[in-house]
Amino acid sequence: MIGGDRIGAVSEQPAEADLAHLAAGRAYVAGAPAAAISLCRALLETILRDHYLRGIDTQREDMKGLIDIAVARYDFLQPTRLHALRLDANKILHRFAERRPNVDDDKTVLGHLKDLKHYIEKAPRT
After folding, report:
1. Per-domain residue ranges of the chain
2. Tens digits of residue pLDDT in 94-115
3. At CB < 8 A and 24+ separation, what contacts does 39-44 make?
4. Which of 12, 41, 78, 90 keeps 20 to 30 A from 84, CA to CA?
5. Which residues pair with 2 in a beta bridge?
6. Is the pLDDT reported for residue 29 higher than 50?
């Protein structure tokens, strides 16, 4: 448990997003922040495409575009936090590739895991 929350426990009946969140949480707990943030970024893209932007042609959109479209449609989505996940993932993965880990990566990943839990819970159901 981290901060009283079970990382990865999003709903009683795990869906694909819940299982991906659980995998990201397990990577975090195992001490693999690069793997965890990579899963977080992929999960955010999946949640946006499959839930928040369902029925919209997003094939040509990059992650920035997906976030911008979703934020325009849903008032409760916070563009600063969504773009932070995208940008933090890029930074962490580049540092990992260059073998330059940062001591703050763990806190950054944990924050994004918590945010993703919220986005999964609020996602329009398909």
Report:
1. 16-122
2. 999 998 888 899 999 999 999 9
3. 40/85, 40/89, 40/109, 40/112, 40/113, 40/116, 41/85, 41/86, 41/89, 43/17, 43/116, 44/82, 44/85, 44/86, 44/116, 44/119
4. 12
5. 5
6. yes
